[in-house]
Amino acid sequence: MGEKTFFQPLTREDKITVVLYRIGILLSALIISLAAFVAVKSISRAYPPIVSGIILNVFLLLLYIGVGLSVFFIHLYVGKFYRVLKKIYFLALACLGLLFLIGHGNPVVPLLRTPSYGALLLIPLSLCLGFVAAKEAFCFRLLEGYLLALFLPAFTFFYAIGVFTPEAAAFCLAFIAAMLVFFMFRKIFMPIHFDIGDKSAYQP
Hints:
This protein is mostly helical. It has helices spanning 12-42, 53-72, 79-102, 109-112, 123-140, 144-160, 166-188, 193-196. Helix 1 packs antiparallel against helix 2 (53-72) and helix 5 packs antiparallel against helix 6.
């Protein structure tokens, strides 16, 4: 994990887990980019709403799936970090359940209300994605990962408490999406063995 040296032959499981981990990053970047596109277009008077609430709900669920893939298939030397990360993701799933409850089956609805306090329930998810980005920044000097680790939860919090105007929120989300896409392209084309590292160094 985080090593460019080829330590040992890769097993089929090694390859599958790395691919699933990177698919999670790809899916997360894609969904956040689509959400940013919708947000930016929605603030323009020239465009009517371009997606339905059902599609937005699907976006949200796919984002949870993408982040979940990255969380469960991340390769970390320190087992304690992995266990904490999974606990935060389970908390994120509990928060998703609350969004379904508050939104009466439409989890996106509480996120779009004014004030949008329901977005506070997205903070655990943003922490998970931020952790993945920070891990990659630490291991491979993808410095935008550190910015994402800060901006994702910060944006979620300040959006939830109503600091941003709709225009500012849309463009902030677009900026985060651009960074995430840049991060994603720098990550997913790395050799697979970079993510595995030295398996003898993994801690339980």
